Fold this sequence. Notes:
Helices cover 47% and strands 14% of the residues. It has 14 helices and nine strands.
Amino acid sequence: MIDLVVRFPEMGExxxxxxxxxxxxxxxxxxxxxxxxxxxxxxxxxxxxxxLRPVFPxxxxxxxxRGLPAFVGPQTLVFACSYSGNTEETxxxxxxxxxxxxxxxxxxSGGVLxxxxxxxxxxxxxxxxxxxxxxxxxxxxxxxxxxxxxxxHMGELSGxxxxxxxxxxxxxxxxxxxxxxxxxxxxxxxERLFGHMPAVYASSPDLAAAAYRWKSQLNENxxxxxxxxxxxxxxxxxxxxWEDGTTAARLAVVLLGEPAEDAAVARRIAATxxxxxxxxxxxxDVTARGSARxxxxxxxxxxxxxxxxxxxxxxxxxPTPVPPIDEVKRRxxxxxxxx
Length: 339
Ligand code: PA5
């Protein structure tokens, strides 16, 4: 797993270049984008929605279910993402998208979804097989960004990827396994989380997808329960739960923030630290890197991916296998290929 995390920037570059050659559906007047995908194959949709929200004129909706929202139709561009291609929810939602007449791009390493995409003649991104799905995030996410750049002429996204790639490469040198603990903030943070339940909070909804990825990676790689949420909404509910001092002392807060935080956001977070986090085991800040949104989101993702593997190693567990996911798929008679 750690080798795959180290390869994150190079996987991203490969995925970006591959998507340059992808055959695309006609660039019609889309009224919505829908991304279908579960778990490690769904989080790319969350990141896409976060990336495009401030600049894109139509909504990006992520569907983590076997059914589709009623709005999906011929004017909805659908991305169907499943690393294995055998995830029942995604196959079902894809079939519903075809019935609804939605133009669809399939992103998979194989399985049933691969066969269906071929039968329907859909454009397909071929993801390399043999990886844990969540480790393939660059292959699952960046083709969607590049496809939308080509379809909508959002040329600035090329520059955003170049900046992100360079920032991610620098992070691998700083946070990777070769970098000693004394100079490695990811290893230091994993030590602060060790023995506690992480509570990962994004400074705004723009970074909430990164907080969700942290939580999911801590679950799947670290084999621990974790909380996640985003300001300002957490001030209206979760902040009250911190009044339970016994539970609070078992929690280690991680605050994901922007390099230059908006003054109102900074005041809100400072107040919440005093009011709610005073009994926490620790409060750690992780700051996004880069000037554009893609680098800021992916830098937080990569930082969390490293932390989740270091937490696993501190706990003496193997980050790669995910028996409870496989076991439920097995009981539902779903093949767990692609692991
Ligand atoms: O990371 C994982 O293994 C899971 O979260 C899977 O991504 C999830 O179960 C869906 O499977 P797939 O990615 O093959 O569609």
